[in-house]
Amino acid sequence: MLVNRILKHGKKSLAYRILYRAMRKIQRKTEENPLVVLRQAIRGVTPKVTVKARRKSGSTYQVPIKIRSTKAKVLAIRWLLGASRKRPGRNMDLKLSYELINAAKKQGNAIRKKEETHKMAEANRAFAHYR
């Protein structure tokens, strides 16, 4: 699933190359198993709730909704890749490796995105009955 999200213009071999290079860089930097770091990063970024816009009598409310684990994992991967693409730097494998390492340490832009979503859901908890 991660490789298919990295994919640009149908170049799957390039996406695999980016992922494997990022894993190699994680191995060198942390001296840990890169799959463990990847799992920690995805688990750390995975949201529990999200907000969904609902229209009720002319007004739009941001209603907090619990999300299923598959949808949450897709969001986590999307946020990780988006944050790594926005990072300054030369190549994607370097940016992805740094973002994964930071996410595993509970830092970085992907973690901030998750916390923003949770704060928004908490702030709009009063509209939960519009579900």
Question: How would you describe the overall organization of this protein?
Answer:
The chain is an alpha+beta fold and 131 residues long. It has one domain (2-130): Ribosomal Protein S7, CATH 1.10.455.10. 63% of the residues lie in helices and 12% in strands. It has six helices and two strands. It has helices at residues 2-6, 12-30, 34-45, 69-86, 92-104, 109-123, and strands at 49-56, 59-66. The chain has a two-stranded antiparallel sheet. A hairpin with a 2-residue loop joins strand 1 (49-56) and strand 2. Helix 3 (34-45) packs across helix 4 and helix 4 (69-86) crosses helix 6. It is elongated and about 55 Å long. The two termini are 30 Å apart. This is Ribosomal protein S7. It holds the Pfam family Ribosomal_S7. InterPro entries: Ribosomal_uS7 (IPR000235), Ribosomal_uS7_bac/org-type (IPR005717), Ribosomal_uS7_dom (IPR023798), Ribosomal_uS7_dom_sf (IPR036823).
Biggest sheet features: 2 strands, antiparallel
Number of helices: 6
Q: What is the highest CATH level, the class? A: Mainly Alpha
**Computed CA radius of gyration, to the nearest angstrom:** 17 Å
Please state the overall shape, judged from the principal axes of the Cα atoms: elongated
The CATH architecture would be Orthogonal Bundle
What is the strand content? 5-15%
Total tally of structural domains:
1
Please bin the fraction of helical residues.
55-70%
State the order of secondary-structure elements, H for helix, E for strand: HHHEEHHH
Distance separating the two termini: 30 Å
Uncertain residue segments? none
Can you tell me the CATH topology?
Ribosomal Protein S7
Structural class: alpha+beta
The count of DSSP E runs of length 2 or more, i.e. the number of strands, is 2
The overall average pLDDT, rounded, is: 92
